[in-house]
Amino acid sequence: MNAFVANLPRLPKREEHQSVNPITLIRSLTWLQHAFFASAWIAWTCDAIDFFAVSLSVTSLSKVYDQSTHNITTSITLTLLFRPLGAIIFGLLSDRYGRKWPLIANLVACAVLSLGTGFAATYGAFLGVRCLFGIAMGGIWGQCASLGLENMPAEARGLFSGILQQGYAFGYLIAAIINLYAVPKHDYRILFFIGAGISLFAAIVRLLLPESQYFAERSAAAKLEGTQVSSAQKSKIFISEAGKALRLHWIRCIFAILLMTGFNFYSHGSQDLYPVYIEDGKGLSKHTATVATIMGNCGAIAGGFIAGWASQYLGRRITVIVCCIWTCCFLPLWLLPNTFPGLGAGAFLLQMGVQGAWSVVPIWLSEISPVAYRASFPGIAYQLGNMVSAASAQIETTAGDTLKTPEGLPDYGKVSAILIGVVSGWLIVCCIVGREDHGAHFERGKAAFEKGGGLDEIDDRHDRLPEPRGDEEKGSVAHEEKGQVQQREIA
């Protein structure tokens, strides 16, 4: 009982959230830190564009392939089911070989498969391409979280976690704008073609940047040691350390998967069928549904920025709890109005809560993950949660077949509202019984290809390694706090 009480969410210690005006935080970064973060944010944004292109095209796809809405949403389910495979493949490659080339290959694969979706001639081909796209999509998030946050000063990570995660909402926003203005002039395929172009652009941006500062420092550490290990030996060490990390952190693994199952039901339950809910349930036009979607994503971006920054002061878990309560308070406004002004306001305020809670996820998972496996652990946990929640769209459409509006249409709004309320409760429970490692200096841990990496060993030589190229004076924020970091306790 004492252990349970001691683990309850509480405000971080004062020394763990020094200062800080968000403008000061942003200005404190070097140009290279900004560039790394921008590259990660663009990659995650284009990932969202490619994914939501299907959600926004359900009606058109139903007509093209002569399939029901339920059958078209099967593609969403399949995409989510295959994402853990991509997280495993690309996450492990990133932890072993670095943040640069695995992400470039991943983005090129997304671009090719997005194009393939637009050219799919049959329903079977469409499903096959979306399965492959799920593998490609699954690798993006973990790599983006590690690249974007491991190069940040610890005190800036809450704010930038929120900004990074809202690349997802911004991608949805871009897809909705394309759907609003470009699709009527062409057809739904333009969504997939533009998404492919943005993915290639993101790959080019990453190509122009160097390897992550973290991996550069670990290479410098090997040279400082005076020992060079072959690639084959590094791979053997990598596999051995992964086993150690799994034995040490298996409880955290289970917690992270349960947490991300709730989070993925949270977002997909409020987004996947929202355009269908507005069109069929409220009888509004496709144009109006798209505008409401845009308003919701504006709310998501605002909520992500505010909640991410606030999590540096409130802690990760308290921030999520506050956002879940906020979401439930605005469920009636999201559900009950029948005109656009009320529905738009409801979408804005509800998505503020949903994506405000999500804004904490990148930094929370990064802080509790084995330090050497920051691309694979968060990414795999995220996508396994996605896999468990993969049937959310089909669950909603099936429930809609039995829960009808007075006009006899599926009541997707009520179904989604019930799901959102239940999942809010689940996330609050996870926050109460779970743990966080607020302010962890995970950038000081050994890499996965080094002995001791799986045990979260800290390399004290970090302070003596050469600074990365860039504006060192401004970037020194990342190295100001030199206190001793202890090896983590077992979760």
UniProtKB/TrEMBL annotation:
Gene3D superfamilies attached to this UniProt entry: MFS general substrate transporter like domains
Topology in membrane: Multi-pass membrane protein
GO terms classed as biological process: plasma membrane lactate transport
Main location group: membrane
Keywords: Membrane, Transmembrane, Transmembrane helix
Gene Ontology CC terms: plasma membrane
InterPro entries reported in the protein's UniProt record: MFS, MFS_dom, MFS_trans_sf, Sugar_transporter_CS
Amino acid composition bias (Basic and acidic residues), ranges on this chain: 459-483
Subcellular location: Membrane
GO MF assignments: secondary active monocarboxylate transmembrane transporter activity
Residue ranges of domain Major facilitator superfamily (MFS) profile in the record: 36-438
Any single Pfam family the record assigns to this protein: MFS_1
Chain segments annotated as transmembrane: 35-56, 76-94, 101-121, 127-147, 159-182, 188-209, 250-269, 289-311, 318-336, 415-434
Region span, Disordered: 452-491
Protein name as annotated: Carboxylic acid transporter
Species this chain originates from: Leucosporidium creatinivorum
Lineage: Eukaryota, Fungi, Dikarya, Basidiomycota, Pucciniomycotina
